[in-house]
């Protein structure tokens, strides 16, 4: 297996694990307690956020320095994500010449970070809507589960993308 295939395989593992752990509860809740027509309305509202411009994500950026993100533990989450510390260590062990970031790839990685933040922001919006639906219907346990899953699966990944951009912009200068 070459570098590209190995990287894709290694990155698929945490991606799959995080998705199963966090999408399973919302899927079970929606399947069990949300009418299909209402689910489509909720989904459409979430999908609308994909059209938000980069300027919106720049405006909601928590900080321009890494220290704020570090104090929230965002850098720790990076260990267990796709393209994270553990994956990069495994790849470097197998391909010692592998460079995580090259000067040419910085703008590409910044673009990718916006795309991933948009995805998680869309999922964040959907989770909030569904958790609110659970609250209104008095499924308090479900609302709590969805709230915590939203923090783990969407809030921290959005913050991680912001953290990555701050680090990349520092490296660029």
Q: Give start-end ranges of low-pLDDT stretches.
A: none
Q: In this structure, how is the largest beta sheet organized? A: none
From the spread of the alpha carbons, the general shape counts as globular
Q: Please indicate the count of domains.
A: 1
User: What is the string of helix and strand elements?
Assistant: HHHHHHHH
Estimated structural class: mainly alpha
Count of alpha/pi helices:
8
Task: Kindly estimate the percentage of residues that lie in beta strands according to DSSP.
Answer: under 5%
* Residue-averaged pLDDT: 93
Helical fraction: over 70%
Radius of gyration: 18 Å
Oligomer: single chain
Span between termini: 36 Å
Number of extended strands: 0
Descriptive keywords:
8 helices, mainly alpha, globular, single chain, 173 residues, 0% strand
